């Protein structure tokens, strides 16, 4: 594993110098040399090890498997956040969560702080080079209120699951994608298209029954099979939280039932992805397009005593990353080196030969494909958590990977497995324990001390960088009625 456990002594100046991107001074690429389309498709809550092309035992992604054969599959991509808003904003800004400070709201703190106006986004940079930019997303923590609409010509929550239907149907979104592609071709301008949905997010009942229950070999009586099995709130709206009421995750049969439903929704997401690619083929832009398939975070299935996501463990941070380059350049490669989703922005912009002239924290991993240059970043992820109602600021936590170990300092309040409450330091030997099951924090005190010191120094570097850039978030606001309902359905608000 790359990265060394070494002490770091940093000042604001040193941090800035280390993070400055390379600027070649070359003349910007003209639009007629760009690919006609860049598609960034994020399937929310998709853990990499549940895709069959990543070695999963179930055939959850038959189409994505075929797509990966003509693309580059990154076997060890790590998200910089374990929840939706920070994970996605790190992709769009190439900044760490503690720097950009965009995070999911919480029942204790429902206010939304949008991205600071002084931070440029991926889409704003593309607009400067005459790109058309459109986003069709699932709402919730990627909504415009967080600042995700910056740089988009249109940004709509068309991909949000409608609560009143029994399962998700994509016809409207597929038609919209076709119209957007045709419009961009008429204008003879390159198109950036961001697609995002929550079909793999709990409750895992958003697919048609034949998909939803495709892997459910031994359903447990009394556990949900369809949305009709969920309770309803006052007024008749479905209570999404009731999905969890009867699950006992200490019971292996219950856990198997849960995971089978999740896998069925992955299978349906694979089908939706195929429909999108079919549109690209029919509109004759597929071969020349740059297509990125990834996720913001994974999902926990009781590996560390809990469920859903928010904690800085491997099951929540290891995400799929598959990139098709135009004309199948680099096709069939599998990259085993760890990469960060934070580094997508500089990688794609290096490929486009568009210089980045503002400060970012990411670095391009294109060298892993071309063999020119180096790529050796510290692999890290961060969290911003509120644990008490009266806390004025979130607690900042970090997970770092170095010398075959991972270390994190995220408090584990909210665990469901007895005995883990209050644990706040985690040390794992990834060579011996890649699923991070044996906490060595008390058994390897010297390694723990080095990793603890490095983690604290990095967090302080990121705070200094935030202050240096004067990255004050925008004015806090409460979610509107529609957004609050979306956040509630996703389990982020009560």
Question: Brief description of this entry?
Answer:
By secondary structure, the protein is of the alpha/beta class. Helix content is 28%, strand content 15%. A hairpin with a 5-residue loop joins strand 7 and strand 8 (307-308).
Notes on the protein architecture:
This protein has 494 residues and is an alpha/beta fold. The protein has one domain (12-489): Alkaline Phosphatase, subunit A. The protein has 13 helices and 14 strands. It has helices spanning 12-19, 62-69, 84-93, 97-100, 122-128, 171-187, 209-212, 252-282, 314-317, 344-352, 367-370, 445-468, 481-489, and strands at 37-43, 72-78, 132-136, 154-156, 191-197, 290-294, 300-301, 307-308, 318-324, 334-340, 379-385, 395-402, 405-408, 426-429. Strands 4-3-5-1-6-9-2-10 form an 8-stranded mixed beta sheet, with helices on both faces. The protein has a 4-stranded antiparallel beta sheet with strand order 11-12-13-14, with helices on one face. Strand 7 and strand 8 form a beta hairpin. Helix 6 packs parallel to helix 8. It starts with 11 loop residues before the first helix and ends in a 5-residue tail after the last helix.
Helix content: 25-40%
Mean pLDDT, all residues: 88
Overall 3D shape: globular
Major β-sheet annotation: 8 strands, mixed
CATH homology-level superfamily: Alkaline Phosphatase, subunit A
CATH architecture: 3-Layer(aba) Sandwich
Strand/helix succession: HEHEHHHEEHEHHEEEHEEHHEEEEHH
The fraction of residues assigned to DSSP E strands is 15-25%
CATH topology description: Alkaline Phosphatase, subunit A
**What is the straight-line distance between the termini?**
41 Å
In the CATH scheme, the class would be Alpha Beta
Sequence stretches where pLDDT stays below 50 over 5 or more residues? 6-29
Number of domains: 1
Our count of helices gives 13
């Amino acid at each position: 594993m790359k990265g060394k456990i070494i002490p770091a002594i940093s000042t604001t100046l040193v941090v800035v110098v280390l993070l400055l991107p390379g600027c070649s001074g070359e003349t910007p690429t003209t639009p007629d040399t760009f690919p006609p389309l860049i598609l960034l498709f994020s399937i929310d809550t998709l853990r990499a090890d549940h895709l069959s092309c990543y070695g999963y035992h179930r055939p959850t992604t038959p189409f994505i498997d075929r797509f990966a054969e003509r693309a580059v599959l990154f076997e060890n991509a790590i998200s910089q956040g374990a929840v939706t808003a920070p994970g996605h904003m790190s992709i769009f800004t190439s900044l760490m969560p503690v720097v950009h400070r965009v995070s999911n709201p919480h029942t204790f703190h429902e206010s939304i702080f949008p991205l600071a106006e002084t931070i440029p986004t991926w889409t704003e940079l593309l607009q400067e080079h005459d790109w058309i930019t459109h986003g069709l997303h699932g709402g919730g923590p990627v909504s415009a209120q967080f600042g995700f609409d910056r740089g988009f010509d249109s940004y709509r929550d068309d991909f949000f699951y409608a609560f009143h239907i029994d399962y998700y149907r994509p016809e409207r979104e597929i038609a919209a994608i076709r119209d957007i592609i045709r419009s961009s071709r008429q204008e003879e301008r390159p198109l950036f298209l961001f697609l995002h949905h929550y079909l793999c997010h709990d409750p895992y009942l958003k697919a048609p029954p034949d998909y939803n229950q495709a892997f459910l070999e031994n359903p447990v009586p009394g556990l949900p099979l369809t949305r009709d099995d969920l309770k309803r709130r006052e007024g008749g709206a479905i209570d999404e939280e009731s999905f969890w009421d009867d699950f006992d995750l200490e019971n292996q049969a219950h856990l198997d039932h849960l995971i089978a439903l999740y896998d069925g929704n992955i299978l349906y997401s694979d089908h939706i992805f195929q429909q999108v690619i079919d549109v690209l083929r029919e509109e004759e832009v597929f071969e020349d397009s740059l297509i990125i398939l990834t996720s913001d975070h994974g999902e926990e299935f009781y590996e560390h005593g809990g469920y859903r996501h928010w904690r800085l463990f491997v099951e929540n941070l290891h995400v799929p990353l598959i990139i098709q380059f135009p004309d199948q350049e680099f096709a069939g490669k599998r990259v085993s080196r760890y990469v960060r989703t934070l580094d997508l922005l500089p990688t794609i912009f290096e490929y486009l030969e568009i210089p980045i002239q503002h400060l970012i924290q990411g670095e391009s991993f294109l060298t892993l494909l071309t063999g020119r240059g180096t790529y050796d970043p510290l692999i890290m992820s961060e969290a911003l958590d509120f644990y008490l109602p009266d806390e004025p600021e979130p607690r900042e936590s970090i997970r770092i990977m170095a010398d075959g170990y991972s270390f994190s300092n995220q408090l584990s309040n909210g665990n469901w497995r007895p005995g883990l409450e209050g644990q706040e330091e985690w040390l794992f030997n990834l060579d011996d324990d890649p699923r991070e099951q044996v906490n060595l924090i008390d058994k390897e005190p010297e390694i723990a001390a080095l990793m603890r010191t490095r983690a604290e120094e990095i967090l302080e570097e990121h705070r200094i960088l935030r202050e240096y850039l004067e990255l004050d978030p925008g004015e806090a606001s409460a979610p509107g009625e529609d957004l609050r309902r979306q956040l509630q359905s996703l389990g982020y608000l009560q």
